[in-house]
Amino acid sequence: MSTSENAYWGKEVAEILQIGESTLRKWCLSLENEGYTFTRGQHKSRAFLDHDILTLRRMKELIQNKDVTLKTASEIVVSTFDKGDRTRAVLQENGVGEPSVPAVPSVRQEELLMEVLERQERLEEQNRLLISKLGEQQKYIDEKLEKRDKQFIEAIRESQESKKLIASALEQQEQRERAEQDKGFFARLFRL
Hints:
Layout: E1 7-8, H1 10-17, H2 21-33, E2 39-40, E3 46-49, H3 50-65, H4 70-80, H5 84-93, H6 107-182, H7 185-189
Antiparallel strand pairs: 1-3, 2-3
């Protein structure tokens, strides 16, 4: 490790990345399972260098923003990580020249990239279908609400008409009763 490169402990890195320490440990184990190596302290604890933090930031971006699984994110990060970087730093410390590393992407990198692109396309297609379904559902709801409103208004009109008819019938009955009362005693007695 060169003297100009800062080293951080797990707690500091977790705070920098705004993740939990247990999440950081899981990510580190996943990266190590894919062949990534971290600098270790006296008690086998990980010491994180600046480039390790950049690697972990890339992991965070893939997992949280791109909806990639932990294993796939680890594979992508490790495959894009120039394995010669760490070796180059050690060789420079020891005074040995730099090794040559080809800049051609590996077949595995291309496969992972294609997998991520296919997944993104599937997600975009699912989003389009969901938006379409939501539009259809909203149209159905609007139609049902409009139909319900029309039925409700029609029921109110019918109710009002019924009340008018009942009021009219009651008024006619009252008029007949008044007319009956207005007739004399003998006219009521001898109804013809």
